[in-house]
Structures are given as C-alpha cells and as structure tokens.
C-alpha cells in the first residue's frame, strides 16, 4: 500500500448527501476481484450518458477536475452495501482523500485498508472546503496527515482528527498484510519453537 504523508491536489466538489456505494461503483463492475481498472466505472451512472459518452455536467468530467485527488462530499458518504470495490474505484481513479461530515462505518474502515484517507469535519468546515473546491483548477488543497491539517488555496487551515493507529498505518503504507509482515521475526520464532516442541504436528 502506498504511504500517505502529504497530498497536494485538486479537490472536486460533490455536495450530494447519502452517496451510496452503488453510486460510487455500480453493480455491473463487481465481477472482478482485481483492484485495478475500476476507475472507469467510478460514478458510472452519473458520469456517462446513455450512449456511453461522458456527461459534461458531471464534476469529474469537467476539465478542471479530471485529475482530482481529493473529493469534498456531502453527509453520509459511502452508505449502502459493504462493497470494497468502492474504495478500489476511487483509488484507481486517483482519489486519495475524501472529506465529509460523516461516513458509513464499513466504507470508512475500507478506505484506511486501501490507502485512502477519509476525513470527518464539521458542517461549517465542509462549507468552507466546498467553496474552495468550487474554484475549478484553482481548487488546490494540501492534506498533511502527519500534522493532521488541511490547507486551502488561500492559506487558511483546518485541523482534523484521525485515530492514531490508522494514522500510523497510512503514514507507513501498512495494510493488514503489511502489519502482519512487520511481525515476521516473531512469527518465525514462534513457528520454529512450535515445530521443535511438536515435531509430529
């Protein structure tokens, strides 16, 4: 998993509440278990017209936001079914951070496990960030995970809180497998001792 230390990039505004995982990645794209290639299906039902062409009114199709790395979203983002394909699709598109006033629990947990930082802010703070994100190509935010701070295009900053363990994992690029491998020496020592004590097992 790629480390998340500091991210500077375009923030796309999505002032929609209750964006569920089916909207993030429709069920038609769930036939794969690969984490790559899902970016094309991100928000597919809103992002494409019936003939398959890009919907020019959808935010991520607008030239200023096509390379967005941050999503500023409405309340209760990621609700609905527990599909892990939702953070996979966001990540494959290039989104490394989602900011909202609240997230569905399973989606929130899945983000951390896949290298995406979900940030919870107050409604007042979200309104300020949504205004920043509405500036098109000038909608540049910097997310500093080490100092837990969001800096806007005008230099104003917002502090955010994140669980210390999850922060450690993102800063060091550790998913569940990476965390296990950190204990590799201890696991090997245990296995050797177990084999010596119970060679028949």
TrEMBL record:
Residues 1-123 form the Aconitase A/isopropylmalate dehydratase small subunit swivel domain. Its EC number is 4.2.1.33. GO terms for biological process: L-leucine biosynthetic process. It comes from the Bacteria. CDD domains: IPMI_Swivel. It catalyses: (2R,3S)-3-isopropylmalate = (2S)-2-isopropylmalate. Pathway: Amino-acid biosynthesis; L-leucine biosynthesis; L-leucine from 3-methyl-2-oxobutanoate: step 2/4. GO terms for cellular component: 3-isopropylmalate dehydratase complex. Keywords: Amino-acid biosynthesis, Branched-chain amino acid biosynthesis, Leucine biosynthesis, Lyase. GO terms for molecular function: 3-isopropylmalate dehydratase activity. Pfam families: Aconitase_C (PF00694). Belongs to the LeuD family. LeuD type 1 subfamily. Catalyzes the isomerization between 2-isopropylmalate and 3-isopropylmalate, via the formation of 2-isopropylmaleate. Heterodimer of LeuC and LeuD. This is 3-isopropylmalate dehydratase small subunit. It comes from Ectorhizobium quercum. The gene is leuD.
């Amino acid at each position: 998993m790629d480390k998340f230390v500091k991210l500077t990039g375009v923030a796309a505004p999505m002032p929609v509440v209750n964006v569920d995982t089916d909207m993030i990645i429709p069920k038609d794209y769930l036939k794969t278990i690969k984490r790559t290639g899902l970016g094309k299906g991100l928000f597919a039902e809103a992002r494409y017209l019936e003939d398959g062409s890009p919907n020019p009114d959808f935010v991520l199709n607008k030239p200023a936001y096509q390379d967005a790395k941050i999503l500023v979203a409405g309340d209760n983002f990621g609700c609905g079914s527990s599909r892990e394909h939702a953070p996979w699709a966001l990540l494959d598109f290039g989104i490394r951070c989602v900011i909202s006033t609240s997230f569905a629990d399973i989606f929130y947990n899945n983000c951390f496990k896949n290298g995406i930082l979900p940030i919870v802010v107050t409604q007042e703070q979200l309104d300020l960030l949504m205004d920043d994100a509405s500036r098109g190509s000038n909608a540049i935010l910097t997310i500093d995970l080490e100092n837990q701070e969001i800096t806007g295009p005008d230099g104003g900053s917002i502090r955010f809180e994140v669980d210390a363990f999850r922060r450690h994992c993102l800063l060091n690029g550790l998913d569940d497998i990476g965390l296990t491998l950190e204990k590799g020496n201890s696991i090997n020592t245990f296995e050797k001792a177990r084999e010596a004590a119970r060679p028949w097992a």
